[in-house]
Design goal:
Blueprint: H1 6-19, E1 25-26, H2 46-50, E2 55-60, E3 66-73, E4 76-83, E5 92-95, E6 100-107, E7 112-123, E8 126-137, E9 143-146, E10 154-155, E11 157-161, E12 168-173, E13 187-192, E14 198-202, E15 208-213, E16 219-226, E17 231-236, E18 244-250, E19 262-263, E20 269-274, E21 282-287, E22 292-299, E23 304-311, E24 317-324, E25 328-331, H3 334-346, E26 351-357, E27 363-370, E28 373-381, E29 386-392, E30 404-411, E31 417-424, E32 433-437, H4 453-460, E33 464-468, H5 478-482, H6 491-505, E34 509-519, H7 521-532, E35 539-543, H8 549-555, H9 561-573, E36 593-598, H10 607-618, E37 623-628, H11 638-655
Parallel strand pairs: 8-10, 32-33, 32-34, 34-35, 35-36, 36-37
Antiparallel strand pairs: 1-29, 2-3, 3-4, 4-5, 6-7, 7-8, 8-9, 11-12, 12-13, 13-14, 15-16, 16-17, 17-18, 19-20, 20-21, 21-22, 23-24, 24-25, 26-27, 27-28, 28-29, 30-31, 31-33
Length: 659
């Protein structure tokens, strides 16, 4: 454990001063919106857009006195625990290994946190992505690796955290990478995060990959998948009985099982999500012993689906996360719902998102932002009724209003309505602009009208940026997702072309000055665009792209049942991987292409870009290749983000210059 450097110590003085300063918004009255800084003639420098956010993966301690997260310390990510109050308590920090990825941070009690990390390691002749948990004690600075010696691929499934102040958790981990050994299926352990002492509370069971615990730490349900037959089963255990199968389905035939997402304390009650295609989505309480519904806890608005459930450390259902027509978090807990409504009332066109809260739900960390501004982190105590600013998420940009962001809808050539995010450059009339179409990754994801540093930077150069949520994207219901099946590289790609055609018809874009820019699946779609439609696109930037689809699917690590399920999903997207793989269409490329790939990418292997660049160079094509030796798939380091933006901007300005 290392202490903070001098620069961060100075920042903490500022943070503490802010916490003791006059309130940024007094909730007893309705303040005027915070004035935006006047836009200067010149756009911000590229370094401003590349700046890492002040904090990511933030979590508030149970008592609301401290926060933990991945903090930006002079452009480098560090895991820190910091007192929110203006006290002399020294913060605890340790640098984040550039070779690993932090997924989340959670407090166990007021003295300990657990951190989930992923890292790529060699297993035989292949690289595997493994996940682990470690704990950090804020008083002693001790770091405890939790079951790291078990040797399985997945060793970081947190099932339960004690809510009585003890340092206990229940976690599940594999102990073997070999599918013919019982340790291949995870066992659940109760672990003391301070000492590392542990005991098995649920032994491995063949085909069971996921366990679910109730609010007291008892493992009550399991999800099993037989990858050979596609049969899924749900196991359930009453408070006094043994495991029994209560539901089964054939996932290959698109049947689904109902897996509990939470348990009602004291009895057989559980909570399940129902996302039916012919009726509103619901959150339902079920008697697991009889399999009968006992209550409807929440009904989603029409056109929305329930993507996830937010629970408290005591197991209580606090809220639901929606996708679709009314995406976002809806709080069911009265205290959180009241606070959210109050924020909406006083903040005008600014948005408040409760990022984390104390166990009693009276203290909160809140992000206040806009789609065109990265915003700030605030601390809220309901006893005071005051939002106090802790820090700007981007110190260089602060509350500066950048390019305008809006949602638009257009119709694809077959009549399907597509939603897109538009980012319009400042200082222009918005007519016949050079345009960048930026498809998202996934493809099971979607873009929304939130602050996007990459899109904002490209727009600052004078480009209209269009981010289409093409068919197959999440957030618009199962029927919309299924429209992508069999259409990889076909209708999914048409949707990108149709976004360009729509913008041209609206008078916003110059169709002869259009480029594609994307990462991951978006990198594939950008690259495939110049292969399939060489006369449409002037250039392409492909970041961490999949170039050989079959090779990428085959690279999914054995022993990862989620990868096995992903294989099934990918194979539904196209009957012929080779026919829609850019690696097989090099001869058709006429536009210049820029590849950017991090050598520490564990999601899309760098060999995907290596192979494609080699083939393009061998064929005499215009190709540039930027390899970043320390970058991961998400460009988590500030230096790598800066390289990404600089390379993107220079390439666009060279091959699709803004007049």
């Amino acid at each position: 454990m290392v202490m903070m450097g001098k620069a961060f110590g100075m920042r903490m003085v500022v943070v503490c001063a802010l916490l003791g300063a006059a309130p940024a918004a007094l909730l007893a009255q309705t303040p005027a919106p915070a004035p935006a800084a006047p836009a200067p003639a010149a756009p911000p420098p590229v370094e401003a857009f590349a700046q890492l956010p002040f904090v990511a993966h933030i979590a508030m301690s149970p008592d609301g006195q401290r926060m933990a997260g991945i903090f930006n310390l002079d452009g480098k990510a560090s895991m820190c625990m910091i007192s929110i109050a203006a006290t002399a308590e020294p913060p605890r920090c340790l640098p984040v290994d550039a070779k690993g990825v932090v997924h989340w941070i959670q407090w166990v009690n007021n003295d300990n946190i657990v951190v989930r990390v992923g890292v790529q390691i060699p297993v035989g002749e292949r690289l595997w992505y493994v996940e682990r948990l470690f704990a950090v004690n804020r008083k002693t600075a001790a770091v405890q690796r939790l079951l790291w010696d078990h040797g399985g691929q997945h060793g970081a499934d947190l099932l339960w955290v004690a809510n009585d102040g003890s340092p206990d958790i229940v976690m599940a981990t594999q102990s073997s990478v070999y599918s013919d050994e019982i340790g291949f299926f995870p066992a659940a352990h109760r672990v003391n995060v301070e000492t590392g002492a542990h005991k098995v509370v649920r032994a491995s069971q063949v085909d069971v990959f996921d366990w679910v615990a109730d609010g007291s730490g008892q493992v009550r349900a399991g999800y099993a998948l037989d990858d050979r037959t596609g049969t899924a089963r749900v196991f359930y255990r009453s408070e006094t009985g043994g495991l029994r199968v209560i539901d089964r389905a054939n996932v290959r035939a698109r049947e689904s099982v109902e897996m509990p997402v939470a348990f009602i304390p004291g009895g057989e009650g559980a909570v399940v999500i129902r996302n039916a295609t012919d009726k509103p989505a619901r959150l339902v309480q079920v008697d697991m012993a009889t399999q009968k519904d006992t209550a409807t806890l929440y009904t989603a608005p029409e056109g929305s689906r329930i993507a996830a459930v937010q629970t408290g450390r005591d197991g209580a259902v606090l809220g639901v996360r929606l996708e679709g027509a009314q995406a976002g978090l809806r709080w069911l807990d009265p205290t959180l719902a009241e606070a959210q409504a109050l924020f909406a009332k006083v903040l005008g066109d600014r948005r408040a998102t409760i990022l984390s809260h104390s166990d009693d739900r009276k203290k909160m960390l809140v992000r206040v932002d806009r789609a065109d501004s990265p915003g700030a982190l605030y601390y809220y105590d309901s006893g005071e009724g005051v939002l106090r600013r802790v820090a700007w998420f981007n110190e260089q940009l602060q509350n500066r209003r950048l390019a305008d962001v809006s949602l638009a809808r257009y119709k694809a050539r077959d009549g399907l309505e597509i939603e897109a995010v538009l980012t319009r450059p400042q200082g222009t009339e918005g007519k016949r602009l050079p345009v960048v179409v930026m498809p998202h990754g996934g493809p099971w994801a979607h873009d929304s009208n939130n602050y996007d540093y990459w899109a904002q930077y490209v727009a600052s150069l004078g480009y209209l940026v269009i981010q289409p949520n093409f068919r197959g994207s999440t957030g618009y219901g199962e029927a919309f997702e299924r429209k992508g099946e069999g259409q990889l590289g076909l209708a999914m790609q048409d949707d990108l072309n149709d976004a360009l055609n729509w913008a041209v018809a609206q008078g916003m874009a110059d169709g002869k000055r259009a480029c594609l820019v994307g990462a991951s699946y978006g990198g594939y779609a950008s690259l495939w665009g110049v292969v399939r439609d060489p006369g449409v696109w002037r250039c392409a930037v492909a970041v961490a792209p999949v170039t050989s689809l079959r090779r990428d699917v085959n690279d999914m690590a054995d022993g990862n049942y989620q990868a096995n399920q992903s294989r099934i999903a990918w194979e539904r997207m196209t009957p012929d991987f080779g026919a829609v793989s850019p690696a097989n269409g090099v001869a058709r490329i006429t536009a210049p292409v820029l590849f950017i790939h991090g050598r520490h990418d564990t999601t899309v292997m760098p060999n995907q870009s290596d192979m494609m660049v080699g083939r393009m160079r061998g064929a005499g094509k215009q190709v540039d290749y930027v390899q970043l030796p320390e970058a991961d798939h998400y460009f988590a380091r500030q230096a790598d983000r800066l390289s990404l933006l600089q390379a993107t901007g220079a390439f666009l300005q060279k091959h699709n210059p803004v007049p």
